[in-house]
Amino acid sequence: MDFNMKKLASDAGIFFTRAVQFTEEKFGQAEKTELDAHFENLLARADSTKNWTERILRQTEVLLQPNPSARVEEFLYEKLDRKVPSRVTNGELLAQYMAEAASELGPSTPYGKTLIKVSEAEKRLGAAERDFIHTASLSFLTPLRNFLEGDWKTISKERRLLQNRRLDLDACKARLKKAKAAEAKATTVPDFQETRPRNYILSASASALWNDEVDKAEQELRVAQTEFDRQAEVTRLLLEGISSTHVNHLRCLHEFVKSQTTYYAQCYRHMLDLQKQLGRFPGTFVGTTEPASPPLSSTSPTTTAATMPVVPTGAVLAPPEEAALCLEEVAPPASGTRKARVLYDYEAADSSELALLADEVGPEGQEELDGPGTLNLHNSAHSHGTPGPWGGAVGVSGSDYRSAGAVPNVYGPVQP
To answer: What is the pLDDT of residue 156?
Structure first.
């Protein structure tokens, strides 16, 4: 118990001495031992490495797991030394929903078959994502985390110890400086003309005491200097090890890029196979292709509109037997003039558009397309976007307008 009390009192005295020295340095009342430029560069490099490693680690965790709640849960499991439970990826969850939708909507329908195929592809994408997360965590996140929780903690501990050794060294220097000043003052103060021997003896004793204090301060300074130099060398070796840390992180970065490349290559291959499978399905629309226009007939517009089949509500349309054609495969019309029936009313937004009325066909006026995206109006009633007597019917098909992009999609079947 006596030994512990002495040690506690000694530690308290050392802490108080360091606190006084640190405070005086902050106020500029005490000298501070400066480190050499190379050592300062090593410290700055280590701090920069630590800061950027933390940022890269956090952002990579966000990339692999965007859900913050899931990241907090995984963090708690790691701190409790418990195994993180397996989590379903978003692709696997989407695949599950698509498979359930296909079984309920009908797996034999074109939509149901497509849902099944897409769900299988999404399931493979989810499995690839799971493998990528696992590989990236082991090859990239774990080394970064080990550096922050292992090497950097050791470096920080040695740096704090070096800071304490420096404070002790500067405190010893200040104590020696004060002792020498007091010794010089005690040497010059005694009055040798003093007739009372007692005062002379006291002055000589004080001078001898300050000599002992100077010797003691010098001894403490030598010990503090030795400990400081030893600790500075240990810290320097650890800081120089940051170079090997960079080499290790570089190798881990290559592994991360390799795993990410493999992941995206798998995703591309799975989606390419899915696209090929969907392209072989009848009635599947892939890309921007459109079905071919129906053949022209010699019937009048009214007859054509009257004979159009009406599909009852809730009826299931049979899938077309032929694949969709590209726009380049559609043959141009046989005659130079084509007409279109308006499906619904449309109010022109500005002078570059036509105002149209539903269920009207244009028997007059001549419009022609000079090229994609260009519409020349020769009817004076429509040259400024004003509806004519026939309500905005034009001499081109609705598909031509859609490809040109000049008029909204409000046109019905093409009339001869």
So the answer is: 95
